[in-house]
C-alpha cells in the first residue's frame, strides 16, 4: 500500500507572456495598454494570496518569474558548432514567463489550482483568451512505468 | 547633499554597478552605455532629491531597465534587417578551465573577488592597444565621463567616444566571458592591469604634451584605481609596490615645477614642499612588501623612490644603495630606460666618467639612442665632468627631441647657462 505522500504528484503551472505583455505590465504603453499602479497592485495582491493558500495547504513547491524575453540567449548547433543568438523571440511571441510548481493529489487538483488564476484581476486588456498550462512533472522512470 | 559627494559616490559605485549588470545580463558593450545613462540620471537627480536608501540597487535597477530598452531596439532593428545577432562560442566556453570544477566553481578563485577586478582585467585585455585600454579603464572602472577623459587627453570628445566604442566592440568580438581568468593567465593579465594603471599615472605625471592643467587629476585617478586593486589583492607584492611607487613619485609633485611652470630637477627641488603624508605611506607600504616573496620591478622602483624621498638633502642620497637596486631591477625588467637610470646612479656614486662609460653602450641601442633623456643625461654628466662645451651640445640635442614644452624650456635654459 503506497503511502499518501508517495501518491502525491508534482505539476508545473506555466504562465506565458510576450515581450508586449511585459511592457504593458511594467507600465510602458506600447502595442498593449499600460497597466496602472492600481492594476499592478491588484494583480500582485491576488497572486500573493494564491501563493499563500498553496503554502498553507502544503501544496507549494516552488515559483519563479523569468526576466523579460529580450534577455534570452539561444544556443544552437549549426554545422556542428554551437552558435549563440541574442534575443531570438519576436515581440509578440508568447514565451514562458514564469512557473509555479505544486505537489498535490491529482492532475485534477492541479487544474483546480490553476483555474483559480482566472479570477486574477486581469489588467486593462481584459482576461479573455488568457491561459496557463498545467503539465505533470516526471520524477523518474517509476513515474512512467507506474 | 552636495554635488561633490554624489560624484564621489557614483564613481565608486560605477564599476560595481556595471559588474552586477554584465554578470546578470551579459552584453558588456551595451550594458556599459546603460550604466553611463544611469549614472547621468543619478548625477542630475540625487543632488536635488537626495540619495536613495540603497544607491547601488537604484543604479542597477535603472541601468538594467535601460539595457533592456537598448537591447530591444537593437534586436528589433536586426529583425527588420533580417540579421540575427549570432556569435560562435569561443573554445574557452566549451571546455571547463583547468582550475574550474564541473560545478563551475573556481578551485583557487581569488577570495572575495570583486567585479571591479574582473572589469579591470577586461579593460586591460591584450587584444586592446594601450590607448584603448586606458580610455576604457578610465570610463568603466574610473567612472569618468567620455568628455572628461577627452579633456584629460586633449582630444575632441567625439574622438574619445569613437575610441571607447572601438574598445568595447573589440571586447565583444573577443567573446571573453565575464569571469576571473584562471592561472597562469591571471598573473599575466594582472601585470597588464598594473601596466595600464602605471601608464595612466605617468601620463598625468610626465605631461608629455600640452599644458599641465588637469593632468594631475589623472595621477590622482591612477592612485585611486590602484588602491582599489590593492584592497582586493592586499597580499600581492607588485600591487603594493605600484601604489608605493606612485605615492613616492607623486609626493614630489609640489616641488617639481617652479612658479613659472618650469621643471625643477630632483637635486634642486625644495624638499620641504614634498608631500610628507604620501612619503610616509609609500615608505610603510614598500617596507612591508619587500620582505615578502619575489621582488618585482614596481617594488624595486618604489624602493629607489623611497631612498630619494627619505634623503634630507640631494647630497645625502644613498647612491650606492640606489645603484644596487637598479642592478636588481635590470635583472627583472629589461629595457634601456632602466639602464639609463642606472648609469645616472653610477655617476652619482662613482663619478661622472663611470656614468659616461655606461652611456656609450646605450648610444648604440636604437630604442633609446634618439631619446631626449639620453642626451639630457649626457649633458648633466658632461657638465659634472667639467666639459661645458660638450654638455651644452648634449642639452641642445635633448631640447630638440622632447615634445614637452616645460622640458624643452628647462634644457634650453641649461644650455644657455653654459654659454655665458
How does this model look, in words?
The complex is a heterodimer of chains A (146) and B (420). Chain A has 146 residues and is of the alpha+beta class. Chain A has one domain: Alpha-Beta Plaits, CATH 3.30.70. Helices cover 32% and strands 29% of the residues of chain A. Chain A has helices at 4-7, 19-25, 37-57, 107-115, 141-145; strands at residues 9-17, 60-65, 73-78, 81-86, 95-104, 132-136. Chain A is flat and about 45 Å long. With 420 residues, chain B is mainly α. Among the domains of chain B are: 1-77, no CATH class; 342-420, Serine Threonine Protein Phosphatase 5, Tetratricopeptide repeat (Alpha Horseshoe). In chain B, α15 runs antiparallel to α16 (336-350). Chain B starts with a helix and ends with a helix. Chains A and B meet through β4 of A and α3 and β1 of B.
Compose a concise summary of this entry.
With 146 residues, chain A is of the alpha+beta class. Chain A is built from 5 helices and 6 strands.
Write the layout of secondary structure elements.
The complex is a heterodimer of chains A (146) and B (420).
Chain A: H1 4-7, E1 9-17, H2 19-25, H3 37-57, E2 60-65, E3 73-78, E4 81-86, E5 95-104, H4 107-115, E6 132-136, H5 141-145
Chain B: H1 3-25, H2 28-49, H3 55-80, E1 86-88, H4 91-94, H5 115-123, H6 130-141, H7 146-153, H8 157-174, H9 185-206, H10 215-232, H11 237-250, H12 253-256, H13 276-289, H14 297-310, H15 319-332, H16 336-350, H17 352-362, H18 372-384, H19 388-401, H20 405-419
Helix pairs in contact in B: 1-2, 1-3, 1-5, 2-3, 5-6, 6-8, 6-9, 7-8, 9-10, 9-11, 10-11, 11-13, 11-14, 13-14, 14-15, 15-16, 16-17, 17-18, 18-19, 19-20
Please describe the structure with a list of short key phrases separated by commas or semicolons.
heterodimer; A: 146 residues; alpha+beta; Alpha-Beta Plaits; four-stranded antiparallel sheet; two-stranded antiparallel ribbon; 6 strands; 32% helix; flat; B: 420 residues; mainly alpha; Serine Threonine Protein Phosphatase 5, Tetratricopeptide repeat; 20 helices; 69% helix; elongated
Amino acid at each position: 500500500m503506497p503511502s499518501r505522500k508517495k501518491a502525491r504528484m508534482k505539476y508545473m503551472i506555466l504562465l506565458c507572456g510576450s515581450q508586449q505583455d511585459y511592457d504593458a505590465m511594467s507600465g510602458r504603453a506600447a502595442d498593449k495598454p499600460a497597466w496602472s499602479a492600481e492594476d499592478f497592485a491588484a494583480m500582485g495582491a491576488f497572486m500573493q494570496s494564491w501563493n499563500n493558500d498553496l503554502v498553507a495547504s502544503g501544496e507549494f513547491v516552488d515559483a519563479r518569474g523569468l526576466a523579460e524575453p529580450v534577455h534570452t540567449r539561444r544556443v544552437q548547433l549549426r554545422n556542428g558548432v554551437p552558435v549563440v543568438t541574442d534575443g531570438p523571440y519576436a515581440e509578440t511571441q508568447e514565451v514562458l514567463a514564469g512557473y509555479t510548481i505544486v505537489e498535490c493529489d491529482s492532475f485534477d487538483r492541479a487544474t483546480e489550482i490553476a483555474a483559480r488564476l482566472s479570477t486574477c484581476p486581469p489588467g486593462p486588456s481584459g482576461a479573455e483568451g488568457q491561459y496557463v498550462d498545467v503539465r505533470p512533472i516526471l520524477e523518474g522512470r517509476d513515474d512512467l512505468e507506474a | 547633499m552636495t554635488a561633490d559627494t554624489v560624484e564621489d559616490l557614483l564613481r565608486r559605485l560605477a564599476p560595481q554597478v556595471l559588474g552586477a549588470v554584465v554578470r546578470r545580463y551579459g552584453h558588456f558593450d551595451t550594458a556599459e552605455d546603460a550604466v553611463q545613462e544611469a549614472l547621468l540620471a543619478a548625477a542630475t537627480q540625487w543632488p536635488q532629491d537626495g540619495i536613495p536608501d540603497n544607491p547601488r540597487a537604484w543604479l542597477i535597477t535603472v541601468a538594467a531597465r535601460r539595457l533592456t530598452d537598448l537591447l530591444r531596439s537593437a534586436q528589433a532593428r536586426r529583425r527588420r534587417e533580417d540579421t540575427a545577432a549570432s556569435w560562435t562560442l569561443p573554445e574557452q566556453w566549451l571546455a571547463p578551465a583547468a582550475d574550474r570544477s564541473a560545478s563551475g566553481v573556481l578551485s583557487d578563485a581569488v577570495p572575495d573577488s570583486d567585479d571591479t577586478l574582473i572589469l579591470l582585467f577586461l579593460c586591460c585585455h591584450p587584444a586592446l592597444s594601450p590607448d584603448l585600454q586606458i580610455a576604457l579603464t578610465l570610463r568603466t572602472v574610473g567612472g569618468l565621463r567620455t568628455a572628461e577623459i577627452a579633456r584629460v587627453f586633449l582630444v575632441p570628445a567625439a574622438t574619445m567616444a569613437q575610441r571607447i566604442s572601438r574598445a568595447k566592440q573589440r571586447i565583444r568580438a573577443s567573446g571573453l566571458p565575464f569571469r576571473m581568468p584562471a592561472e597562469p593567465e591571471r598573473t599575466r593579465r594582472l601585470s597588464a592591469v598594473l601596466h595600464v594603471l602605471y601608464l595612466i599615472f605617468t601620463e598625468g605625471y610626465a605631461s608629455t604634451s600640452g599644458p599641465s592643467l588637469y593632468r594631475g587629476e589623472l595621477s590622482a585617478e591612477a592612485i585611486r584605481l590602484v588602491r582599489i586593486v590593492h584592497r582586493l589583492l592586499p597580499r600581492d607584492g607588485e600591487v603594493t609596490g605600484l601604489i608605493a611607487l606612485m605615492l613616492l613619485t607623486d609626493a614630489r609633485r609640489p616641488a617639481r615645477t617652479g612658479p613659472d611652470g618650469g621643471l625643477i630637477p630632483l637635486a634642486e627641488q625644495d624638499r620641504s614642499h614634498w608631500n610628507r603624508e604620501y612619503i610616509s605611506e609609500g615608505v610603510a607600504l614598500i617596507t612591508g612588501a619587500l620582505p615578502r616573496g619575489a621582488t618585482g620591478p614596481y617594488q624595486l622602483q618604489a624602493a629607489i623612490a623611497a631612498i630619494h624621498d627619505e634623503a634630507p638633502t640631494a647630497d645625502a642620497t644613498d647612491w650606492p644603495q640606489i645603484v644596487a637596486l637598479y642592478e636588481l631591477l635590470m635583472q627583472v625588467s629589461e629595457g634601456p630606460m632602466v639602464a639609463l637610470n642606472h648609469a645616472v646612479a653610477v655617476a652619482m656614486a662613482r663619478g661622472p666618467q663611470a656614468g659616461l662609460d655606461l652611456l656609450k653602450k646605450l648610444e648604440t641601442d636604437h630604442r633609446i639612442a634618439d631619446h631626449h633623456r639620453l642626451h639630457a643625461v649626457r649633458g648633466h654628466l658632461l657638465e659634472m665632468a667639467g666639459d661645458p662645451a660638450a654638455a651644452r651640445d648634449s642639452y641642445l640635442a635633448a631640447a630638440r627631441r622632447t615634445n614637452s614644452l616645460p622640458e624643452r624650456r628647462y634644457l634650453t635654459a641649461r644650455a644657455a647657462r653654459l654659454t655665458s
